[in-house]
Amino acid sequence: MLGICRGRRKFLAASLTILFVPAITWIYLFAGSFEDGKPVSLSPLESQPHSPRYAASSQRESLEIRVREVEEENRILRKQLSLAQGRGPAHRRGNHSRTYSMEEGTGDSESLRAGIVAGNSSECGQQPAVEKCETIHVAIVCAGYNASRDVVTLVKSVLFHRRNPLHFHLIADAIAKQILATLFQTWMVPAVRIDFYDADELKSEVSWIPNKHYSGIYGLMKLVLTKTLPSNLERVIVLDTDITFATDIAELWAVFHKFKGQQVLGLVENQSDWYLGNLWKNHRPWPALGRGYNTGVILLLLDKLRKMKWEQMWRLTAERELMSMLSTSLADQDIFNAVIKQNPFLVYQLPCFWNVQLSDHTRSEQCYRDVSDLKVIHWNSPKKLRVKNKHVEFFRNLYLTFLEYDGNLLRRELFGCPSEADVNSENLQKQLSELDEDDLCYEFRRERFTVHRTHLYFLHYEYEPASDNTDVTLVAQLSMDRLQMLEAICKHWEGPISLALYLSDAEAQQFLRYAQGSEVLMSRHNVGYHIVYKEGQFYPVNLLRNVAMKHISTPYMFLSDIDFLPMYGLYEYLRKSVTQLDLANTKKALIVPAFETLRYRLSFPKSKAELLSMLDMGTLFTFRYHVWTKGHAPTNFAKWRTATTPYRVEWEADFEPYVVVRKDCPEYDRRFVGFGWNKVAHIMELDAQEYEFTVLPNAYMIHMPHAPSFDITKFRSNKQYRICLKTLKEEFQQDMSRHYGFAALKYLTAENNS
């Protein structure tokens, strides 16, 4: 081992002797490019004082001349320096491999594989450790609904292994920011900070670059991180969204200590033959050093890059190459490689286990001999989990582990590391501390303050607002056992829908597969699916309703339940009723009468006349007439049978109709969980706020039969459950009296008389 170290010291000395060659070259080029303090014009978007056509032609000619001059000077200087050291010409043409010292971080892939065989630790000395509480900075570009889902799996894999505070820098579009801001706010993971940067504001920086890659314009934004991220941020790990970590990210952060000289980029060699240009006839990739480098995992020394004027460097390279290449094929990766081709001293080559690239026909299998060798897995094929690889089943299972892993288990403290004060977390702890844990209803009261991790818009969502401001969104909530109702509701209601789904992480993936396999659901883009992740022992029904209500895009909403099918044409009928009854300027709650069937197979009535006929035959019934008559009796079904115009009804105790209201109506009270009084309390509050209840004469909905929910079973079998529900009702009524004063006394009286 001692002999190996001595040999490496000699090797290091030789490497250091060679190091000044590219460094002097770079300094010379840099000085030549910006002599007299006047930088070369880099952007084709810069305005010129002459006519646009003449200016563009003149700029291109001068740029081409300058590029040729710089390249010739570069060639001569390298030749002179190489001859001075007795080494022969260093310049080579084409994308052929070059061998560099591993100590400089640019060793070839054979050397790296030798390092893996030696046990992934070829250093003589101990690798510099990352301080226990040192914050690790991670940057990710994320845009859209699908990428937002992918980021969650990546973050889970990082959180699972991490032992350090993390600071995520998310370059996100408006969609991803809304989704991920809510997710992290409700996730409440200790020692994790999130900052967002507006990706849409960065579009102008890279929009001039034609890009054929499926990532689109967002696939170019890693190029501008030196400008985008805070000026005091010195280093950052940049990750693609399709990355899975199999080790502590601190190990990768420690690699920054190995950078030497002018090295500012840490990259893994590309494991496909793309940049060798031999994949098919006339295949012409962008220039690259050897096999090129993959940018799925990048270590960026931001402070040095800024001093090197990285922004001007990559722009000059991109403009020069685009003259012949016309567009990028692999987005930012093409431009990074073109820059490295001209400036190889910039790169520290990471061992390939830091980016095991699972594309078809890659050399990824040479990056590991054992499971313990794996560090980072990169699903960089468009096929993702369907990629061809000898060990793909192992990789797929590892990915699915984090995909379905309970994210709540990652809310663990980093002991010994001070964390930033979180106002929301402190308020939550204060509220919980005020509860009496000996109270028999403690779990009920605690649920009111539970923060459930929430992933908004789990699937792609598109909505075009109606020009007449009469649009209505159907609002409902469900759990996994009601998933089969979704297709039927979508067939009955063509308008926008907002659904809150109470699922575990594993169930969320089952739902995703179910939805993606359904032609009905995939054909509807105006349905917002919001996942509220399971936590605690109760079904938070009113929290779910509030989540669905909060994320509607229409002025009105139809507050329904998932096991009801609206009549055909109800969407258009409600839009007309909203206008006719002037809902925009009056506080009205429009009641849709509710019916039920005990038959699992029902010929759904296509009109009110057909429904009345089925009522008379006993095929349909007014909703809950045989168990909970008071819930819908005030609708006055006898009057509805012959009504042709809307009619007003008065509030009565235990009234819980399904209503259409403006989007600014009060939320549901979160103290009511599981079964019992969750809708009753909401209708009572609408009445307290002087909403007028109006029954629609030609509207109806039908409840479809299903097995009893777990919560109603608990209500029926657990005496303490019923006692706590009664206690919560009384407390709610007292709160109503305090809030609404004398007018709310009728609710106490009505309850006592019922």
Automatic annotation (TrEMBL):
Pathway membership, UniProt: Protein modification; protein glycosylation
The reaction(s) this protein catalyses: 3-O-{beta-D-GlcA-(1->[3)-alpha-D-Xyl-(1->3)-beta-D-GlcA-(1->](n)-4)-beta-D-Xyl-(1->4)-Rib-ol-P-Rib-ol-P-3-beta-D-GalNAc-(1->3)-beta-D-GlcNAc-(1->4)-O-6-P-alpha-D-Man}-L-Thr-[protein] + UDP-alpha-D-xylose = 3-O-{(1->[3)-alpha-D-Xyl-(1->3)-beta-D-GlcA-(1->](n+1)-4)-beta-D-Xyl-(1->4)-Rib-ol-P-Rib-ol-P-3-beta-D-GalNAc-(1->3)-beta-D-GlcNAc-(1->4)-O-6-P-alpha-D-Man}-L-Thr-[protein] + UDP + H(+); 3-O-{(1->[3)-alpha-D-Xyl-(1->3)-beta-D-GlcA-(1->](n)-4)-beta-D-Xyl-(1->4)-Rib-ol-P-Rib-ol-P-3-beta-D-GalNAc-(1->3)-beta-D-GlcNAc-(1->4)-O-6-P-alpha-D-Man}-L-Thr-[protein] + UDP-alpha-D-glucuronate = 3-O-{beta-D-GlcA-(1->[3)-alpha-D-Xyl-(1->3)-beta-D-GlcA-(1->](n)-4)-beta-D-Xyl-(1->4)-Rib-ol-P-Rib-ol-P-3-beta-D-GalNAc-(1->3)-beta-D-GlcNAc-(1->4)-O-6-P-alpha-D-Man}-L-Thr-[protein] + UDP + H(+); 3-O-[beta-D-GlcA-(1->3)-beta-D-Xyl-(1->4)-Rib-ol-P-Rib-ol-P-3-beta-D-GalNAc-(1->3)-beta-D-GlcNAc-(1->4)-(O-6-P-alpha-D-Man)]-Thr-[protein] + UDP-alpha-D-xylose = 3-O-[alpha-D-Xyl-(1->3)-beta-D-GlcA-(1->4)-beta-D-Xyl-(1->4)-Rib-ol-P-Rib-ol-P-3-beta-D-GalNAc-(1->3)-beta-D-GlcNAc-(1->4)-(O-6-P-alpha-D-Man)]-Thr-[protein] + UDP + H(+)
Membrane topology category: Single-pass type II membrane protein
Span list, region Disordered: 83-108
A single GO molecular function term of this UniProt record: glucuronosyltransferase activity
GO terms, biological process: protein O-linked glycosylation via mannose
Family, per entry: In the C-terminal section; belongs to the glycosyltransferase 49 family. In the N-terminal section; belongs to the glycosyltransferase 8 family.
The protein's name: LARG1 glucuronyltransferase
Originating species: Caloenas nicobarica (Nicobar pigeon)
